[in-house]
Amino acid sequence: MGIQVEIVTPRRQLFSGEVDMVTLPGVEGQMGVMRSHAPLLTILDIGEIVLHREGEEDEHVAVSGGVVEVRPDKVIVLAETAERAEEIDIQRAEAALERARKLLAERPPEERRPIELAMRRSLVRLKVARHRRRRPAAAGMPRFQDEEEEQG
């Protein structure tokens, strides 16, 4: 038996379903949540949510922040924005990244924070979009993002 996950933005409900584990980008670091997790309320960072189902391909979602409530049987994500890998326009994300890089080089340090956040959002969107072409890890316990990068 898995855990129920809901991912909601101000515009839509992106996902509602049961997964074996969900990996979330918390502001204190990446966290994995399975059924019977201790209750928790925390802030989401810009990053990637990964929905793990044993025997199926992981589903990747780019988020630009928000909050998450964890209950023993349910995870509710209230995201500022969220996009599934297949929804991301790679060319648009690359163009946004290039614009942010140019602006970052032109602006004084005190004006860089919003540009750095835009750059992080673009990088996450590109990373998530590239998962469309990958196959899942071997059946069994899902890997955390950092473990995949180490083996990459």
SSE topology sketch:
Blueprint: E1 3-8, E2 13-19, E3 21-26, E4 29-33, E5 40-52, E6 59-71, E7 74-79, E8 82-84, H1 90-106, H2 113-130, H3 145-151
Parallel strand pairs: 1-7
Antiparallel strand pairs: 1-2, 3-4, 3-5, 5-6, 6-7, 6-8
Helix pairs in contact: 1-2
Mean pLDDT: 86
Uncertain runs with pLDDT below 50, 5 residues or more?
135-152
**Assembly form of the protein:** single chain
H/E series, N to C?
EEEEEEEEHHH
Largest sheet: 8 strands, mixed
Beta content comes to 35-45%
- CATH architecture assignment: Sandwich
Number of helices: 3
How many structural domains?
1
Tell me the CATH superfamily.
F0F1 ATP synthase delta/epsilon subunit, N-terminal
Strand elements, count: 8
- The separation of the N and C termini measures 30 Å
> What is the CATH T-level topology?
ATP Synthase, domain 1
The CATH top-level class label: Mainly Beta
What best-fitting shape do the alpha-carbon axes yield? globular
Could you walk me through the main structural features you see in this protein, from its secondary elements to its overall organization?
The chain is of the alpha+beta class and 152 residues long. It has one domain (3-87, 121-147): ATP Synthase, domain 1 (Sandwich), CATH 2.60.15.10. The protein has three helices and eight strands.
Keywords:
single chain; 152 residues; alpha+beta; ATP Synthase, domain 1; eight-stranded mixed β-sheet; 28% helix; globular; disordered C terminus
Condensed summary:
The protein contains three helices and eight strands; from the N terminus they run ββββββββααα. With about 150 residues, the protein is an alpha+beta fold.
